[in-house]
Design goal:
single chain, 213 residues, 0% strand, transport, magnesium
Length: 213
């Protein structure tokens, strides 16, 4: 479900708009809607780090992965600004302006925090559980941040938007199922009907030379 939903999102993703300067990205990053998103992310991260992490961080996989995903959505936006700056600078348009250095500081801070809590999640929980949940949360929040910052849904048809929302629901459902079934034992039907040999019988079947009789 997670993979299928992600494929649908990619198929209906809007085309990227050309960006001519870092200042253009800065203007997008300082618009009210995105500032509200950034403020919400910071508040949620502080709540997760200082309240939920000490209490249930080692028992609930969503705490550490949530911190990584929230911070990661901001780092992706900043990395895009840095990439645009390097590309335009190489082309001869100097973009080493204060806004570029600010984005660089944001990237460094977010990546360090992201890696720290991702390592904690991997040390605490099974990789098979952490990886898909982190992937889904990180991708979903990054898409949300991109939609808010770049207003990518403004030029999309209603059908494409509905398809993306349905795909998001599919991805979210897959994540919930992964989280709910992570501690389930295998059904007895998969174990077969054979019962293990009792220690006494096993001892009788085993001779002194290490061979079964």
């Amino acid at each position: 479900m997670c993979i299928t939903g992600s494929i649908i999102i990619v198929m209906h993703a809007p085309q990227e708009q050309p960006i001519s300067s870092v200042q253009e990205i800065w203007n997008m990053a300082t618009q009210l809607a995105f500032l509200v998103y950034v403020g919400s992310v910071i508040v949620l991260v502080f709540i997760l780090v200082f309240y939920f992490a000490p209490q249930c961080g080692h028992s609930n996989v969503l705490v550490f992965t949530g911190i990584c995903s929230l911070i990661g959505s901001l780092s992706v936006m900043s990395v895009k600004a840095l990439g645009t700056s390097l590309k335009l600078t190489i082309e001869g348009k100097n973009q080493l302006i204060p806004e570029t250095w600010f984005f660089m500081v944001v990237v460094a801070t977010c990546v360090i925090t992201q890696m720290n809590y991702l390592n904690k999640a991997l040390d605490t929980f099974n990789t098979a559980i952490v990886s898909p949940i982190y992937y889904v949360l990180f991708t979903s929040l990054t898409i949300l941040a991109s939609v808010i910052m770049f207003k990518e849904w403004d030029d999309q048809s209603a059908g494409s938007i509905v398809s993306e929302l349905c795909a998001f629901v599919i991805v979210l459902s897959g994540t919930i199922l992964l989280h709910l079934t992570k501690d389930f034992d295998r059904s007895p039907s998969f174990r077969g009907n054979c019962t293990p040999l009792s220690p006494t019988l096993a001892t009788r079947l085993w001779n002194g030379n290490g061979d079964f009789v």
